[in-house]
Design goal:
flat, 4 helices, mainly alpha, 139 residues
Length: 139
């Protein structure tokens, strides 16, 4: 049996990991991840675009990284997004408390649904950042 690693497999594994983590942290933790992802997405897009403009002008940075300025900007956006998302989830100054008076199966279904939304948001943000390097999408 030949197993070839493809992007489809990577995305499916990513979704399974995020959904599993969402069930572990519960509804409150997953909502905090979703809110942090939105904030990190907007911040990384703005700051990454700003750095992208300066990297296109700065020749020594391009020679050190051995990539094009557009690829440098995408790399900075993705690193900023993941770093800011992690920092906001771990050290964010906001607290979410949802009434969890539902039974356990309903709470697991809600956490699974929120996990799907969270994984979709994170994956789509990274894919949009990657697509912007080729000029297909602008964010």
């Amino acid at each position: 049996m030949q197993l070839s690693i493809s992007w489809d497999l990577f995305i499916i594994v990513f979704f399974v990991v995020i959904i599993s983590y969402s069930i572990i942290v519960g509804q409150n933790g997953t909502l905090k991840i979703i809110l942090s992802s939105y904030i990190a997405m907007l911040t990384a897009s703005g700051i990454g675009s700003l750095f992208g403009k300066y990297l296109q002008v700065s020749q020594p940075v391009i020679n050190v990284l051995q990539t094009s300025p557009a690829e440098n900007a995408v790399l900075i956006k993705i690193i900023l997004f993941l770093g800011l998302n992690l920092a906001l989830v771990l050290r964010g100054g906001f607290f979410i408390d949802i009434d969890s008076s539902y039974r356990l199966p309903v709470r697991v279904l809600i956490s699974t649904g929120l996990g799907i939304l969270s994984a979709g948001l994170i994956m789509s943000t990274i894919l949009v950042f990657l697509a912007s390097s080729s000029g297909d999408a602008l964010l």
